[in-house]
């Protein structure tokens, strides 16, 4: 299988070859002069004169130049070759580090279910259990139960799971598709875009995420969002952009605070306002909070769907919000630090695949948090802003976040009330449809050095063929 | 198929390269037999109308200063008190000139391993050796911007070496009239001798000038042998890619053409040389066509054997 990174260069090489051909057809090289003592007996042939304008020796030179152009274009086109892939294999990846002795049964039950499903699907399956030792080294085993330990151990991250998978599936590059059933303990505090890395390693296939909990799963009712009236109140300073977006959604914006409104928007609330906002949510409103949170959350902390104290390393200071596959807000906006709290639902992402918004049912209502400030000036003229506002309005709906382009199964698995739901993710979205299109070489061997070498050979041949003209 | 040897310097005694052993061996069994009666000194083959120091007594003559004292007839002196020398019937040696064309056209090689001048040098060397062994005197002249008289006809120790050395130093260049050189060399030959022209016969003056010059030398009693040296490409026996062709002696006249074997071009060349052959035969001259891809031994041997049998031309 051959893939091209920069096809424009290939087209450029073809164009250069065409130019060489055109110049060859247009140029006229003086024909060869040869001595012949009996030339007096020759009679001039007009057709020969015309034919002499392009001597056969020019053809090898033309071919050499065209090949040089093609090889040069191919060298810069980033062509790589990978063996044809075939076959499907299913891996059951078990995060044993997230399981206590009490949760072993749940883990094993999930494993058995995954194996049974594989048998039913007649798919080859392989179980990989992983954990992290006290010194941070990765432990793997085909029997996850042997890795269970009552002693405290570090938590494993999604990247650890990827590493375990890579060790066991080093030949997965020959497979056409990989299916991963990931029995894990979701923990946003350990979010390292591991699933994104997993997708980069296995470019096609499905990921099924099975969440397990340390304790017995709790059933909690799904909160509902009640719409009392088509009025809202905003505590934004200005908020003209938000007002226009709401107007586009036919949601009237109240001029002042209305306790009966269906939604309340608050951007960068002060510490003292958080408690009040939470109360509104408990009373049945959907409270949308955006921007940086105060350092002290007070009593509102546990109810918020966002933990501002968690600051993953390397988090950019701004980003574009992604709402669905190929759909994003066009402007880059400042992003508040932090990550979703456990049990919240991620309903939007930044273009680097990290969460941008999350929601959490509270009381009769819902709190929705956006790490992208809705008061950012860049959003005023940004496309997709209205859609972002719409997603936030209904951030606690059952379908919220389902349209996210990346790992909706993983994100859905974070719903605390979806136990023990396994959401199959069918047909992973091509990563090029995300907001951040990565220019990374595809799997396989790069053919650039070969094409560069061939281009140099052609160049040497051209120099050799034209040596007589220069002498 | 044996090929003519490569260029070799004579200064360090490598003149044997111009006369490969197989050539010498073949020529050693042949004799050049003169077709016309000439003067000179020879023991054996030639008939000469002049008296000299042969074996058959002819008459006496008064002693003159410079005569060989061994010829004095002492018996007659005893009877007459006068000094007389004895004169004998002799087979005189032949005076021959090798006239080698070294104009620019002779530097053409075509697809042969050597050019025409080099082939002519081989032929000349072989003939010189043969004739010197037979007791003939051989000289060397070349056709160039002016006729080059390199060596007068002689037959003495070291002459072959000098002749081969002079041959080796010739180079193909310029343009000249072969007919004029024929006349000039023929004028130098004092007695009815042999003029051997080795040339491609591509004279700017045309074939008639050459034939006229040959006719004049024949009228003076000289034996004329023309060895025509050509290449297969010139004769049109081999094709060549399309190009602008030019005569090396007229480089500004170019003709765009492609050479195809057995084409009209080859027929025209053949007709030209055929006219030369007929003209030479009509004038009693000998014509030997040679091509540079012919083995020297084969071409010369066939000609000389045929010559000894009375056949005139080697095809």
Structural description of this entry:
Chain A has helices at residues 7-26, 46-51, 58-76, 104-121, 158-168, 194-201, 240-248, 271-282, 385-393, 408-413, 448-465, 467-470; strands at 2-4, 33-35, 79-81, 88-95, 124-132, 138-141, 177-184, 205-211, 232-234, 263-267, 286-290, 306-307, 318-319, 321-324, 327-328, 333-334, 339-340, 345-350, 355-362, 365-370, 423-424, 445-446. Chain A is α/β, with parallel strands linked by helices. In chain A, the strands form 5 sheets. In chain A, strands 9-10-11-20-19-18-14-15 form an 8-stranded mixed β-sheet, sandwiched between helices. Chain A has a 6-stranded mixed β-sheet with strand order 6-5-4-7-8-21, with helices on both faces. In chain A, helix 3 (58-76) packs antiparallel against helix 11 and helix 7 packs across helix 9. Mean pLDDT of chain A is 71; it is low at 186-238 and 406-443. Mean pLDDT of chain B is 75; it is low at 1-54 and 311-315. Chain B starts with 20 loop residues before the first helix and ends in a 7-residue tail after the last helix. Chain B has 8 helices and 11 strands. Chain B is elongated, with a radius of gyration of 22 Å. In chain B, strand 5 and strand 6 form a beta hairpin. At the A-B interface, strand 2 and helix 2 of A face strand 9, strand 10 and helix 7 of B.
């Amino acid at each position: 299988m051959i893939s091209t990174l920069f096809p424009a260069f290939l087209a450029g090489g073809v164009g250069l070859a065409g130019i060489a051909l055109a110049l060859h057809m247009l140029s006229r090289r003086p024909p060869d002069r040869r001595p012949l003592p009996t030339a007096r007996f020759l009679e001039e042939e007009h057709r020969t004169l015309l034919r002499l304008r392009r001597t056969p020796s020019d053809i090898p030179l033309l071919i050499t130049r065209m090949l040089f152009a093609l090889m040069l274009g191919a060298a810069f086109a980033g062509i790589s070759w990978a063996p044809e892939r075939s076959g499907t294999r299913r891996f059951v990846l078990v995060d044993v580090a997230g399981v206590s002795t009490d949760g072993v049964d749940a883990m094993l039950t999930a494993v058995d279910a995954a194996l049974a499903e594989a048998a039913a699907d007649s798919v080859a399956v392989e179980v990989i259990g992983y954990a992290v030792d006290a010194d941070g080294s990765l432990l793997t085993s085909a029997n996850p139960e042997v890795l269970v330990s009552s002693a405290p151990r570090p938590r494993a991250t999604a990247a650890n799971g990827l590493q375990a998978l890579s060790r066991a599936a080093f030949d997965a590059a020959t497979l056409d598709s990989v299916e991963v059933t990931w029995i894990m303990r979701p923990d946003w505090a350990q979010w390292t875009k591991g699933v994104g890395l997993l997708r980069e390693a296995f470019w096609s296939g499905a990921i099924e995420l099975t969440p397990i909990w340390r304790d017995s799963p709790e059933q909690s009712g799904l909160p509902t969002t009640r719409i009392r009236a088509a009025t809202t109140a905003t505590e934004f300073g200005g908020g003209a952009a938000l007002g226009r977006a709401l107007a586009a959604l036919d949601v009237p914006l109240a001029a002042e605070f209305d306790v009966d409104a269906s939604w309340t928007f608050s951007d960068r609330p002060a510490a003292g306002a958080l408690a009040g906002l939470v109360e509104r949510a408990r009373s049945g409103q959907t409270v949308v909070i955006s921007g940086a949170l105060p350092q002290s959350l007070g009593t509102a902390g546990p109810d918020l769907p966002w933990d501002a104290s968690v600051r993953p390393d390397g988090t950019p200071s701004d980003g574009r919000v992604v709402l669905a596959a190929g759909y994003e807000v066009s402007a880059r906006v400042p992003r508040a630090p932090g990550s979703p709290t456990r049990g919240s639902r991620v309903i939007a992402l930044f273009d680097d695949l990290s969460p941008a918004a999350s929601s959490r049912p509270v009381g009769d209502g819902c709190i929705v948090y956006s790490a992208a400030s809705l008061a950012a000036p860049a959003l005023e003229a940004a496309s997709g802003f209205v859609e972002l506002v719409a997603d936030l309005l209904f951030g606690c709906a059952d379908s919220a976040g389902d349209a996210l382009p990346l790992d909706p199964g993983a994100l859905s698995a974070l719903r605390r009330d979806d136990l023990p739901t396994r959401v199959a993710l069918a047909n992973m979205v091509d990563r090029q449809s995300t907001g951040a299109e990565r220019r990374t070489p595809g799997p396989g061997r790069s053919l650039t050095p070969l094409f560069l070498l061939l281009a140099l050979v052609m160049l040497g041949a051209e120099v050799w063929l034209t040596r007589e003209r220069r002498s | 198929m044996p090929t003519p040897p490569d260029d070799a310097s004579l200064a360090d005694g490598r003149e044997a390269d111009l006369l490969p052993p197989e050539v010498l061996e073949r020529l050693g069994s042949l004799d050049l037999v003169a077709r016309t009666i000439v003067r000179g000194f020879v023991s054996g083959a030639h008939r000469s109308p002049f008296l000299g120091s042969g074996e058959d007594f002819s008459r006496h003559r008064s002693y003159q200063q410079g005569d060989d004292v061994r010829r004095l007839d002492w018996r007659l002196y005893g009877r007459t008190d006068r000094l007389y020398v004895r004169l004998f019937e002799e087979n005189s040696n032949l005076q021959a000139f090798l006239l080698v064309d070294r104009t620019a056209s002779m530097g053409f090689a075509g697809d042969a391993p050597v050019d025409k001048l080099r082939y002519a040098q081989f032929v000349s060397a072989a003939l010189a050796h043969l004739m010197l062994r037979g007791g003939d005197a051989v000289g060397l002249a070349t056709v160039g911007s002016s006729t080059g008289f390199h060596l007068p006809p002689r037959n003495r120790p070291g002459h072959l070496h000098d002749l081969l050395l002079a041959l080796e130093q010739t180079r193909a260049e310029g343009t000249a009239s072969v007919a004029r050189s024929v006349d000039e060399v023929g004028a130098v030959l004092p007695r009815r001798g042999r003029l051997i022209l080795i040339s491609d016969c591509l004279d700017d003056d045309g074939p008639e000038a050459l034939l006229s010059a040959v006719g004049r030398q024949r009228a003076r009693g000289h034996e004329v042998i023309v060895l025509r040296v050509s290449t297969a490409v010139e004769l049109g026996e081999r094709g060549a890619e399309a190009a602008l062709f030019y005569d090396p002696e007229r480089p500004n006249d170019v003709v765009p053409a492609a050479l195809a074997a057995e084409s009209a071009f080859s027929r025209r060349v053949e007709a030209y040389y055929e006219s030369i052959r007929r003209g030479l035969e009509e004038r009693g001259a000998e014509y030997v066509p040679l091509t540079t891809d012919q083995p020297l031994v084969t071409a010369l041997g066939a000609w000389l054997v045929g010559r000894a049998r009375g056949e005139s031309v080697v095809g």
